[in-house]
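Pasting as-is:
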Amino acid sequence: HIAPLVMLVATFFAVVGITTPNPTAVGADALAEKPDTVKGMLRITRHPFLWGAAIWALWHIVANGDRASIIFFGTFALLAILGTFSIDDKKKKRMGEAWTGFAAKTSNLPFAAIFAGRNQLKIGELGWWRILLALIVFGGLFYAHLWLFGVSPVPGFSPY
């Protein structure tokens, strides 16, 4: 019954990550040079969408555990996690000092920069509309999971 909570975290990372301006996004390199870029979700991780996808995939492996799930969701998890390192490497080579400064204030691994004292968590910077949007997306996916995928998101529970 912990699945909905884990999926809420994954959805939060993905939705808030997609809606937060980020130098790791395609064509957004210039954001790394702006002093006020590192705020909100970027204080938590510079790759929020990919970590949301990784949490989603890894939990589905834990919850299902069958060979098909390991292959299917494992592929997503592997791509998401390795993707964070690939993006970091490409951005470092292309952006040089601008990337170094941005990377010094953020972390790949969620919360690592905060725990290391290089940044601090400021929930108010996330944007309440982003949090609300994540809750709406989560609610929609939770409610429609059985209809979309043929499996209830909580064993023995059906919202219909």
